[in-house]
Each structure stands twice: as C-alpha cells, then as structure tokens.
Amino acid sequence: MPPAVRFGVNYTPSQGWFHHWLDFDLDSVRADLDAIAALGLDHIRVFPLWPYFQPNRTLIRPRAVEQLVALTDAAAERGLDTAVDGLQGHLSSFDFLPAWTRTWHRRNLFTDPDVTAGQAAYLRTLAAALADRPHFLGMTVGNEVNQFAAGPHPDPDPVTADEAGRWLTRMLDACAEGAPGRLHLHASYDAAWYQDDQPFTPAHSARLGAVTAVHSWVFNGTAQRHGRTSVPAEHHAAYLVELAKAWADDPHRPVWLQEVGAPAPLVPAEHAAAFAEATIGNVLDCPDLWGITWWCSHDVSRTLADFPELEYSLGLFTGERRPKDIARVLADAARAGHRAPAARRTALVVPAAPDRRSRCAPGGDVFDAYFRLVADGTRPTTVLDTRADDRDHLAARGITDVVTPGQVLPALRGGTRS
C-alpha cells in the first residue's frame, strides 16, 4: 500500500504574523494549533525568521531555538507533525535577511564562504535541536530562496546553476548532519520551472533532497489569462506536480505540494472554497503525491501595514480563529481518505534545456498543450525530450503514449492558432 497523502497547513500565527517570534506567546500559539488540529490535519510548516534567530553570523540565539522547540512540542501534543523552514528569507513580499549579508556587509548569499558557513551552522543547529522530537518531519532549506538569485528581485545575488547546486547540496548536508534520517528538502517558487534565466533549475528541485517541493500560485498569469474556473487555473497545482516528474531520476519520487492558496481578487472570497475543492481534487489524482500543505492557517491582521492586498485574506481562519468555508474543504479532504490513483499513461514532451523553461510557463506551448489534453479528458504527465525514447524510463513510470506539443495544439496558420 502506498503511504497516505499528508494534509497540512503553513502556520501563520494569528497574533503578530511571523513577528510573533519577537514577543513569543506559547498560549496564543497553542490556541492557533488547537484550531488547526480540529480540522483533522496532520502537519504544519513553520517559519523561523532568519534575522531574529541568527542576528550575527556567529550568534544563533538559544532562546529563539528554545521557542521553536516549544512550538514543535505544542504541535506534537495536538497530533501535528512539524516541518521547519530555515533561511527566511522571503515571505509574503518581504525579505528577511540578516544585516551581516546586506549594505555595508554586502556578500553573496550563495557563494561567499563566510556567509555559507554561517548558513550551514544555523541550519545544523535548528535541525539538531529538533532531532530527538518524533513529530519533527525535517528541514526545508528555506522558503523560495531562488527568488534572491535572479530578477525580478530588485537586488539579486548572482549565481550560476552549478553554484546553486553546490550551495543546495551543502545546506541539505548541514540539515542531515543536525538531524540524520529526516525529510530534508529545499523549495523554489515557480520561476525554477518557468523562467529561462533562473539559476535554480528543475533538476535541482527534482533530484536534490528527499522529496520535490512545488509551490502553486495562479496569480502567475494563469488566472489572469484563463480565469479562476478555467481548466488551467483549477489544474495548475496538478500540472506542477506532474511537470516536476519529468526531471526526477527516481520514477516514483514523491512530490510535495508545499504551498497552494486561493489569492484574491483573482479568486474572490466567495469562490475560494470552490477553487480549493477543485484544486485539491485534481491534485489527488496525481500518483506519488507526498502531501498538500495549504497557504495559510490564519489571516494577516489589518493592523499590519504594507502587505500586498491578497496576503491579508489567504488564511483558513480569520485572525479571531474562526474557520472559513475553505477550512471545511481542507478538513473534508483530510478526513475522506485517499485511494492511490492509477498511473498517468500519456506523457507530454517537455524541453530538458533550462533556457527553454518559458515554454512550460503560462502562454508557452507546453503549458497550452498540457491543458488541451486535460480539457479533452486525458490524464497527462510529462517527460523530458531527452528521455522520450527511453523505453525503460517510460515503463518504470507506466507511460504508454508520448506526444509533443506540436501534435496536441492546432497547427499555426498565419502566425495565429486557428
């Protein structure tokens, strides 16, 4: 029997957002966790803010680490496992980088030897502090750290793909040194799959770490182009799960939908539950799914300034811990059980070359062909063009038919699709 799909939520504290680490209130955390556990979820993902935990390269605050352990223990008391992100990094449009990497101390986050030594020490310390906790799942190196490596970030830390791979390997090794045998991974936002010049590549995501993480947000052009109830919008998360499989060396490598949400106004509040139900149902039809972790648990308080408007209302709960309809959708899915889906027999060919990733993005021919197949009733997966004739690879994944975007889409006539 395959393992059960995990259902969880990214924990955003109801009081103080992630700034709660500055005024840590375990009773408030416990009340938040009570609400989450009542939904029948089995895990949370938590975010220590890096500058608060490591304000100096050689100072990792013991009290902050103790608070992280206390939060993990409180979650365990409620039957919740905890996954911990390390290098925060970037959250909800804000960057959280320690002063020893910026301005007068400006050093590259991925290649400077002092910075990378400090990062490794920090990740190792957090992992070691939790290593003896049975409800600790493992570390994610950081939240969408690839956004620091290239545009559209306004002040990127340039890095090559080889350098990014070496950095990820070193950080994952540090996590494993602190807590051997746990589920350690890294996470990129969708530029890793869609942006031609992004140095963090699909191969990094699909081959480094214990599982592949994907983050699905339809504000990337999908909902704008196609609408919230369209096939591309409601299947976008499933698309990323299946797209990730093309680069994996293990034919059954697990994929974790580590972030997915219903962003207003593209998905208005009154339609969020329906969007969640469709998204979750479609993702559950993906083989080798590790789990679904919704973004996020609690709304951001309107007393906090300068967030993008959509960030305030993404929670399953209001700031007063009242569940929304979308919370009930996730609870129903978690409690319903899940039968492992059949293999996806049809594979769409995708380019292996990193500088052709934009073909997979909204507006690209791979993207359009995939959703044409879905609309026509096919359950597609993907395969690299370099593996499309590899019979052993195809057989291991249960693939019996391989098609190219050109075979799926209508012929181009006069420069437009007819």
TrEMBL record:
InterPro entries associated with the record: GH
Protein name listed in UniProt: Glycosyl hydrolase
